[in-house]
Amino acid sequence: MLSPQHQTLRHAAGIVAEQYSPTALLELFRQPLVVLSAPRSGSTLLFETLRCSDALWSIGTESHLIFNAFPQLHPAERSFESGALAEADATPGLCHQMRACFLAMAQDTRGRRYLDLPESERPRHIRLLEKTPRNALNIPFLRKLFPDLLGLFLHREPHEAIASIMEAWQTGLRQGGFVTFADLPGWDMRHWCLLLPPGWRAFNGKSLAEIGAFQWRTANETILRDLRQLGRDRWLPLRYRDLLDDTAATVRRIVEFAGLPFDGPLRERASAPLPLSRSTVSAPDRDKWRRHADVIEALAAQCAPLARELASLR
Fold first, then answer.
1. pLDDT of residue 189 exceeding 90
2. What's the CA gap between 150 and 133, in Å, rounded?
3. Hey, is 112 helix, strand or coil?
4. Among residues 16, 140, 146, 132, which one has the least CA distance to residue 67?
5. In whole angstroms, what is the distance from residue 184 CA to residue 109 CA?
6. In principle, which of 49, 218, 223, 257 could form an S-S bond with 236, CB 3.0–4.6 Å?
7. Rounded to the nearest 5°, which phi and psi values hold at 182?
8. CA-CA distance, 197 to 216, in Å (whole number)?
C-alpha cells in the first residue's frame, strides 16, 4: 500500500506521463549529473553545493520518495538480498513513469518547479542533478533510466568514511536517523542503517567498524566496476578532501567536465567556506576518526588495496 505522499506523486507523474511520450520525456533530460559515493563520503555536501548552479535542476532532495513510489523496486521483492537494482529492473514502462516523477518534482536553484513555469519559459532540455545513496548499487539501472548520464564519483579516505559510518549507525540505533530498514528480516540489530549491499547477512554479530568497512568497500568497488562499463569521458573521480580544502578548483573541474557555466550563485558558494551539510552528525574534524582508531586501524589491511586504487584515479 502506497502512502498518501507516494499516491500524490504517482498521480502527478501519471498526468506527466500522458502529456509526454516516452521519447519526448527521455529527450527532455539531457546528460543528467549523478553523484555516486559510498555512505558518509560527502555526497550531500557536493549535491548541496552544485544545486546552487543556475544551469542545474533537481528534485530538491534525495530521490527516496521516487524510488519508494514503486513497490516492485523494494528489496522485499528480492527477499532482501540487497538494495541493488539491475538493468533488467528498468523496464520501459517503469522508466517512463520514473522520468515523469522526476519531471513532476524538478525545480531550479530558486525552487521554481519546471511544470509551474509558463510553457514559453520552460527550457527544451534540463540538466538534472541526482543524488541518492543507493545510486552506488544502481548504476546499471540508472543507465537504462538516463542513458546519457554523467557520473560524479566522490570518494573518501577509508578511515574517515568508516568512522563517519559508525557514527551514523550509532545515531540510527539510538534515535532512528539514517535507518533504511527497520526490523530487517534476518538482521540481529534493531535496524539496518545506510546502504544495503549484497552479502550483508554475513555481518550479523560483527562490530560497527566491520560493517562500516564492508559498506565503504562494497560501495566503492561496485561504483568502480560499473563506471568502467562507461566511456572514461562519462565519469569524473573526485576526492572528498579536495572538495573541502580546495572547493573552487574542485567545482571548476566539475563544471568543465559537465560543460556548465561557473558563475552566479555557484561561483559564490565555491569561493567561500562550505556550510555544514544537512546530514552532518557532529562538527567536522580531520582527526575525528581517531576516536575509533584502534578498531579502524585493525581493518586497514583489507581496505588498503582499494584505497590505493581510488587515490590513483585522475
1. yes
2. 16
3. coil
4. 132
5. 37
6. 257
7. -80, 135
8. 10
Q: Where are the alpha helices (DSSP H) in the chain?
A: 4-19, 22-28, 43-50, 64-68, 92-105, 139-145, 158-175, 208-227, 240-245, 247-258, 264-270, 293-297, 300-311
Q: Report yes or no: 49 and 167 within 8 Å, Cβ to Cβ.
A: no
Kindly tell me if the per-residue pLDDT of 314 is higher than 90. Answer: no
- Tell me the CB-side half-sphere exposure of residue 298, using CA atoms within 13 A: 8
Share of the chain above pLDDT 70, in %: 95
Are residues 100 and 17 in contact, defined by beta-carbon separation less than 8 angstroms? Answer: yes
Quick check: 231 and 144 in contact, CB under 8 A? no
Full DSSP string of 8-59: HHHHHHHHHHHHS-HHHHHHHB-S-EEEE--TTSSHHHHHHHHTT-TTEEB-
Give the orientation angle of helix 43-50 with respect to helix 247-258, to 10 degrees.
70
- Terminal-residue alpha carbon distance, the chain: 46
Measured over the CA atoms of residue 46, residue 52, residue 57 and residue 61, the dihedral's sign is: positive
Task: Indicate the length of the chain as a whole number.
Answer: 314
* Average pLDDT of the residues in 238-257: 96
Looking at domain 4-311, its CATH superfamily turns out to be: P-loop containing nucleotide triphosphate hydrolases (3.40.50.300)
pLDDT digit string (tens) for 32-78? 999 999 999 999 999 999 999 999 999 999 999 999 999 999 999 99
As a whole number of Å, the CA-based R_g of the chain is 19
Burial (CB count <10 Å: 0-12, 13-18, 19+), residue 306 = middle
- Whether the pLDDT of residue 198 is over 90: the answer is yes
22: left (phi over 0), alpha (psi -120 to 50) or beta: alpha
